[in-house]
Amino acid sequence: MNRIGINLWNWSNDPSEDYIKWITRVADMGFGAVELPMLNLDSVCWETVGEYARSRKLEITMCASLPAGRDISSFKEEERENARNYLLRCCRIGGVLGATVLAGPIYSGGGKRHALSREQKEREWDYAVCGLREIALEAEANGLKLGIEPINRYRTSIVNTVDQGLKMAADIGIGNVGLLYDTYQANIEEADMADALRRVTEQGKLAHFHACENNREAPGRGHIDWESMIAILKRYGYEGHCTMELFCQGGLDASWQSADDRDEEARQGLKCLTSYMKETVL
């Protein structure tokens, strides 16, 4: 069975203040993996975090944080360099942690949405592709896959769909680059969620999988067809994590009605995904 993980944003908007506390919570609940938001890179002893996670039998993935001013596809050289330096550091930290994946909308930054001419769009795309080639090589040297995440139209105008993500991965042209398929994002942008997931997995390009509901709550509290999702992962031999990316109040996609009991939200999702993993047949 795939390891089920959870992003620490479920409990805190800045979990880097006490990774050990939250990793302990994740392990005690019975998860098999933990996802670290890569926020304050200078304030953490990464060797200690990696050693502790391993001692609790947890595998690690990393979620990139790309606010305004940190954008590898920007027309501004300073913003591209900020993103380059940040992503290279994340790759090196991933090697220290023994992480498996660095994922997110790594092609962009700051919720960038704009209408461009064809020439400008090609220039923006080329900046992303060329920049991420260097990041992919550093990731490979540190034992990591890169997961390009298509995200919804309200947060980017660059990569919204699986097909766009697959094109970017192909243009980068390095074997450790794949996609992060996020069910919340796909529910907004894909005409057929299951078919989009099938296209990624049958090409062997699924680097990471985020499992969350259409309303960004835990699996089992919305209308995502988990049986179909899990069946596709099994059919095409996906061996990575199924990680819940949930948010507490004030988080990126958090509902104003987000549950106050974040432990219960985590338990609900773990129970739901475990059940589908065990019961779904091809």
General description of the model:
The structure is a single chain. With 282 residues, the chain is of the alpha/beta class. It has nine helices and eight strands. It has helices at 19-29, 46-55, 77-97, 118-141, 162-172, 183-189, 193-202, 226-235, 262-279, and strands spanning 4-7, 33-38, 59-64, 101-104, 145-148, 177-182, 206-210, 242-244. Strands 1-2-3-4-5-6-7-8 form an eight-stranded parallel beta barrel, surrounded by eight helices. The longest helix is centred in the middle third of the chain and has 24 residues, at 118-141.
Helix and strand arrangement:
Elements: E1 4-7, H1 19-29, E2 33-38, H2 46-55, E3 59-64, H3 77-97, E4 101-104, H4 118-141, E5 145-148, H5 162-172, E6 177-182, H6 183-189, H7 193-202, E7 206-210, H8 226-235, E8 242-244, H9 262-279
Parallel strand pairs: 1-2, 1-8, 2-3, 3-4, 4-5, 5-6, 6-7, 7-8
Helix pairs in contact: 3-4, 4-5, 7-8
Work out the number of β strands.
8
Strand order of the largest sheet: 1-2-3-4-5-6-7-8
3D shape: globular
**Can you give the mean pLDDT?**
96
Outline the biggest β-sheet: 8 strands, parallel, barrel
SS-based class = alpha/beta
In DSSP terms, counting alpha (H) and pi (I) runs of 4 or more, how many helices? 9
SSE series: EHEHEHEHEHEHHEHEH
What value does the Rg take, in angstroms? Answer: 18 Å
Low-confidence stretches: none
Tell me the β content: 5-15%
Distance between the termini: 14 Å
Fraction in helix: 40-55%
Instruction: Say what oligomer this is.
Output: single chain
